[in-house]
């Protein structure tokens, strides 16, 4: 435990967002994670993106399961709603929260164990339903909270701190997403906020489920030489597939960016995503091409990062389910619950 | 930028803004922590080492440390450093056995100091422990210089001066009172190994306008204060005009209120933002009902039937920088007395001009600003006599430096050879997340000094106005100190660039980025580094990416969280101690 909580003293020149809030207003409780844990950096990037987006804290819902990663939902946006569910069971809770109020910005925080081991089934269905939320997987290849056992994302041949190798095939959440119809897939690295913050902003503006797989080293159990999820390994093998700029709708951009390799994608809320692709002709909207690129990169042992796939055309949970525009809390009770008589009628039809 | 060289004592010293600004480099955060722990005698001794007169300075210091204090950049007001110094002095126990030991066998060196002000007393304080015989010659019947004769007793009680001077004189100094020196030549002819001149800037500036010599109710400020201090003047008229708005003027107006004055006006030539007086002195005078009139330039004394009845002023309209003015009109302000407080000058009527002692501009001796030696080897100056009127803490620092030079001179070491400053850095880590200092930020606001009620204040000139901090006030004020001497010390090879320190820093001091030149780097940090007076720390290239760690020292609150959240202990919190050379630390040459 840190000796003190981060004091509320601030830089006198602290900037304010459109709501008049500073970034400090989007912080949460003091982290109790290990010093140097990648998850804390992801928290800082989320905090930054939330502040930039100017979302009122009370319009944010934070959802998580169990794990060091899941704990971090408590470390940002102290003014937001939050629900900490069972291990791997955050997706159904999030589905409910999102269905009940389409105005909420739902942010799910999960780990590789939480999402890809115990919670894999729930995650797949969350993707199928295209629940409108930001889904962050803080991926460190291990179960951090339970002292470093391999998770389902551990690469074949990578070792534990004590030297035992993993022989099981890893589950890559990006491939998983591509195969079950995900509409926004990105990968980042906790050690690179320059890339991570715009990805989070784009994810927050996406109409549908945005999965961000963030390599987030477990400094205590998986930051050693045999790890493929350490700070050093990630830095040595990181290939930036796309460089993403998020251009919010309010800001008029007059400068012209050199067109070569730039793909602009208008988003549902009027914002624009601008990709500068690093390899020639990488098209983040072409699912087949993306799969091909990713497979060949995997063959070369590269960790590709960036916003890798996006589809702004598909319908989300609300369109698919024809949900109400009014948050359920504001729907009159007699409408929410039509009464036993009406229900009896439904039952015997 | 090149990696910062933190082995240069100036780097970390600069981070301790107060210590850097203090002419004597008092270790402020250290003594504040000692006060916080109730170790008042330790706090007093830590002060005494550098500033010699903690009790006197705890009431009267010009406190250049306070405008420099980092806390004012954080919440708008500095730590009440000066008031805390007084707490240490008021609450300390007996320190007799902690004073430097005076050798019983003397070195045989004899030096003389002219004048018994703070400069000379510091020289004596520094040389006595080295076995010197020190003789002080003072024209008045009491020691202390302007601290005794000019700073009024309601700001600085006599007992405080007595006690701190006795500490020095009791080391065995030969203090000869009532001994004005009338000739430097005769002094040089006597058997002294070195001479120190600490005679101050004894002459108050006069205002030669019509009527000046037609009344005995026109006084020169510092002479008038002296005659008040010695009890020769016990009364003044009801309506008093003070000309000038420096600190002397503040003492004159407030003294007048205690000697029968009821309608006191301080007349300033220029607008308020150009006043010389310290803000707190102005505040205290106005609290007592003194009126301050701006933009009034005195033109003549109005004398009727041989009696002073008023003074005539031009009312001025100034441009923005107060460089040029136009006269609006002329007014006469009636009064019974006028006190001139428009500055002090040096005067050395007793120094013969054919001794070879070089005299420069404004009849000031030419004095080396490092060694304080004049052009006559073995003759040194310090305090107001060396560089013109300054203040007590500068006089003390001059005394320290002159003592080093005098010792060098006596030992046959070139006076210019100065013992170097040293530093100590000691980790404050006590456990995984445990520090030996109170690292949390305390949001308390600056404590206000309580004053004796106005009615009681004017009954006697000796009633001290400031009552000192209460225990509660002290407890709050000590926690406002940001422990700037507990330095953030970085080791680039250990950093794995996890960003933990950067994310946790409450005031966005830290950035990992590509190196660049300073102006460019200053714009690329977590928060732009706009305060150019504050250094940027730049590390060596970091192992994983070759980027650099940059710290903007400006607003660091020394909370230690960067060090606590660092997984590799690349950051550590280490207490910086500046080893200040004094005469005692001058190496004694080995006899060959
Ligand atoms: C009204 C007033 C208020 C002040 N208030 C403050 C304050 O609040 N805080 C602060 O820091 N500073 C203050 N100062 C300034 C401060 O007092 C001086 O800067 C400081 O005392 C200078 O010390 P010194 O040792 O150089 O000389 P001084 O203190 O001037 O001492 C010189 C001594 O030499 C003696 N002397 C002079 N000529 C001879 C001679 N020929 N033979 C023998 N003896 C001689 C004098 O009698 C005197 O005792 C104030 C000054 C004035 C005038
Ligand atoms: C139902 C259930 N099974 C097992 C556990 C034990 N458990 C707690 S956290 C965790 C793994 C967390 O791993 P991950 O999601 O990768 O999070 P990390 O700690 O690595 O961030 C496990 C297995 C549990 N809490 N509940
Ligand atoms: S165990 Fe690993 S994942 Fe958990 S807090 Fe520590 S470093 Fe982070
Ligand atoms: S001690 Fe470290 S964390 Fe605290 S303010 Fe200074 S740089 Fe920031
Ligand atoms: S916390 Fe330590 S290892 Fe991490 S970036 Fe800061 S100095 Fe480097
Ligand atoms: Mg994990």
What would you note in describing this structure?
The complex is a heterodimer of chains A (349) and B (592). Chain A has one domain: Rossmann fold, CATH 3.40.50.970. Chain A has 349 residues and is α/β, with parallel strands linked by helices. Chain A contains 12 helices and 13 strands. Chain A has an 8-stranded mixed β-sheet with strand order 2-1-3-4-8-7-13-9, sandwiched between helices. A 3-stranded antiparallel β-sheet of chain A has the order 10-12-11. The two termini of chain B are 47 Å apart. Chain B has 592 residues and is an alpha/beta fold. In chain B, a hairpin with a 6-residue loop joins strand 11 and strand 12 (325-334). The chains are: A alpha/beta (349), B alpha/beta (592). At the A-B interface, helix 1 and helix 8 of A face helix 7, strand 18, helix 20 and helix 22 of B. The complex binds flavin-adenine dinucleotide (FAD), thiamine diphosphate, iron/sulfur cluster (3 copies) and magnesium ion. Residues 66-69, 87, 111-114, 118, 138, 140, 142-146, 151, 218 of chain A line the site of thiamine diphosphate.
The coarse silhouette of chain A is globular
Integer count of domains of chain A: 1
Q: CATH superfamily name of chain A?
A: Thiamin diphosphate (ThDP)-binding fold, Pyr/PP domains
Count the DSSP helices of chain A. 12
In CATH, the architecture of chain A is 3-Layer(aba) Sandwich
In terms of quaternary structure, what is this? heterodimer
Rounded mean pLDDT of chain A is 91
Biggest sheet record of chain A: 8 strands, mixed
Instruction: Please name the CATH architecture of the domain at 100-202 and 346-411 in chain B.
Output: 3-Layer(bba) Sandwich
Assign an overall shape of chain B: globular
* Secondary structure: number of strands of chain B: 23
Low-confidence segments of chain B, ≥5 residues, pLDDT <50?
none
Terminal Cα separation of chain B, in Å? 47 Å
Instruction: State the helical fraction of chain B.
Output: 25-40%
Average per-residue pLDDT of chain B, rounded, comes to 95
CATH superfamily of the domain at 100-202 and 346-411 in chain B: FAD/NAD(P)-binding domain
Question: What Rg of chain B, in angstroms, do the CA atoms define?
Answer: 27 Å
Structural class of the helices, strands and pairings of chain B?
Answer: alpha/beta
Largest interface (C-beta under 8 Å): A-B, 32 and 36 residues
């Amino acid at each position: 435990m840190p000796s003190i909580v981060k004091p509320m003293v601030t830089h006198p020149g602290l900037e304010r967002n459109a709501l008049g809030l500073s970034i400090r207003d989007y912080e949460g409780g003091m982290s109790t994670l290990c010093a140097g844990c990648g998850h804390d950096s992801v928290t800082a990037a989320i905090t930054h993106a939330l502040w930039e987006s100017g979302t009122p804290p009370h319009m944010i819902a934070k959802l998580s399961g169990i794990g060091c990663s899941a704990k971090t939902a408590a470390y940002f946006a102290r003014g937001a709603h939050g629900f900490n569910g069972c291990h791997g069971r955050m997706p159904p809770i999030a589905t409910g929260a999102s269905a009940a109020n389409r105005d909420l910005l739902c942010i799910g925080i999960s780990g590789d164990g939480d999402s890809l081991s115990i919670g894999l089934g729930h995650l797949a269905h969350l993707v199928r339903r295209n629940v409108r939320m930001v889904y962050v997987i803080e991926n460190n290849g291990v179960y951090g909270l339970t002292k470093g056992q391999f998770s389902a994302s551990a690469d074949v041949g990578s070792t534990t701190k004590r030297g035992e190798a993993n022989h099981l095939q890893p589950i890559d959440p990006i491939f998983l997403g591509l195969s079950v119809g995900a509409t926004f897939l990105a990968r980042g690295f906790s050690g690179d906020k320059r890339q991570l913050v715009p990805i989070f902003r784009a994810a927050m503006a996406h109409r549908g489920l945005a999965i961000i797989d963030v390599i987030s080293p477990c400094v205590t159990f998986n930051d050693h030489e045999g790890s493929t999820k350490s700070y050093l390994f990630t830095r040595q093998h990181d290939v930036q597939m796309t460089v993403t700029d998020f251009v919010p709708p309010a800001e008029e951009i007059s400068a012209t960016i050199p067109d070569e390799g730039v793909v602009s994608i208008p988003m549902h809320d009027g914002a624009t995503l601008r990709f500068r692709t690093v390899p020639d002709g990488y098209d983040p909207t072409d699912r087949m091409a993306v799969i091909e690129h990713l497979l060949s990169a995997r063959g070369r042992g590269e960790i590709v990062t960036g916003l890798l796939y996006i589809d702004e055309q598909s319908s989300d949970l609300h369109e698919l389910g024809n949900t109400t525009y009014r948050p359920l809390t504001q729907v009159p009770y007699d409408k929410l619950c039509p009464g036993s008589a009406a229900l009896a009628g439904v039952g015997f039809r | 930028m090149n990696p910062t060289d933190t082995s240069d004592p100036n780097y970390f010293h600069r981070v301790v803004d107060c210590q850097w600004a203090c002419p004597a480099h008092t270790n402020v955060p250290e003594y504040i922590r000692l006060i916080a722990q109730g170790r008042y005698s330790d706090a007093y001794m830590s002060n005494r080492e550098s500033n010699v007169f903690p009790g006197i300075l705890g009431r009267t210091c010009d406190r250049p440390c306070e405008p420099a204090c980092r806390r004012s950049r954080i919440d708008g007001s500095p730590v009440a450093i000066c008031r805390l110094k007084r707490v240490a002095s008021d609450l300390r126990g007996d320190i007799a056995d902690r004073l430097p030991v005076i050798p019983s066998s003397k070195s045989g060196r004899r030096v003389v100091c002219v004048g018994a002000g703070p400069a000379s007393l510091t020289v004596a304080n520094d040389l006595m422990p080295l076995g010197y015989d020190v003789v002080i010659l003072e024209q008045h019947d009491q020691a202390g210089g302007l601290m005794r004769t000019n700073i009024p007793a309601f700001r600085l009680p006599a007992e405080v001066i007595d006690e701190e001077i006795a500490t020095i004189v009791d080391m065995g100094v030969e203090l000869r009172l009532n001994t004005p020196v009338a000739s430097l030549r005769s002094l040089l002819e006597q058997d002294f190994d070195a001479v120190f001149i600490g005679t101050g800037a004894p002459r108050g500036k006069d205002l030669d306008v019509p009527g000046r010599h037609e009344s005995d109710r026109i006084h020169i400020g510092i002479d008038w204060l002296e005659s008040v201090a010695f009890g020769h003047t016990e009364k003044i008229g009801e309506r008093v005009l003070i000309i000038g708005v420096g600190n002397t003027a503040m003492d004159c107006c407030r003294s007048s209120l205690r000697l029968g004055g009821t309608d006191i006006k301080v007349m300033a030539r220029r607008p308020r933002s150009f006043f010389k007086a310290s803000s707190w002195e102005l505040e205290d005078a106005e609290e007592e009902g003194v009126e301050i009139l701006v933009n009034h330039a005195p033109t003549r004394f109005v004398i009727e039937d041989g009696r002073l009845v008023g003074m005539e002023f031009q009312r001025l309209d100034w441009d923005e920088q107060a460089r040029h003015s136009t006269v609006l009109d002329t007014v006469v302000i009636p009064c019974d007395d006028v006190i001139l407080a428009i500055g002090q000058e040096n005067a050395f009527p007793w120094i013969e001009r054919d001794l070879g002692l070089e005299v420069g501009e404004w009849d000031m001796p030419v004095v080396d600003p490092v060694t304080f030696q004049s052009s006559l080897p073995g003759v040194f100056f310090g305090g107001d006599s060396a560089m013109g009127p300054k203040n007590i803490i500068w006089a003390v620092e001059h005394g320290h430096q002159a003592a080093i030079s005098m010792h060098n001179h006596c030992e046959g070491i070139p006076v210019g050879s100065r013992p170097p400053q040293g530093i100590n850095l000691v980790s404050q880590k006590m456990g995984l997340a445990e520090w030996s200092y109170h690292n949390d930020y305390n949001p308390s606001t600056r404590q206000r000094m309580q004053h004796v009620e106005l009615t009681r204040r004017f009954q006697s000139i000796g009633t001290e106005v400031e009552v000192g901090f209460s225990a509660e006030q002290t407890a709050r004020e000590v926690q406002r100190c940001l422990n700037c001497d507990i330095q953030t010390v970085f080791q680039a090879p250990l950093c794995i660039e996890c960003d933990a320190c950067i994310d946790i820093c409450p005031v966005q001091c830290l950035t990992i980025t590509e190196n660049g030149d300073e102006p460019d780097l200053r714009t690329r940090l977590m928060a732009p580094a706009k305060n150019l007076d504050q250094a940027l720390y730049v590390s060596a290239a970091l192992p994983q990416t070759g980027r650099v760690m940059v710290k903007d020292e400006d607003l660091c609150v020394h909370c230690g969280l960067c060090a606590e959240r660092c997984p590799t202990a690349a950051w550590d919190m280490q207490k910086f101690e500046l080893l200040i050379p004094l005469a005692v630390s001058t190496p004694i040459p080995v006899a060959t």
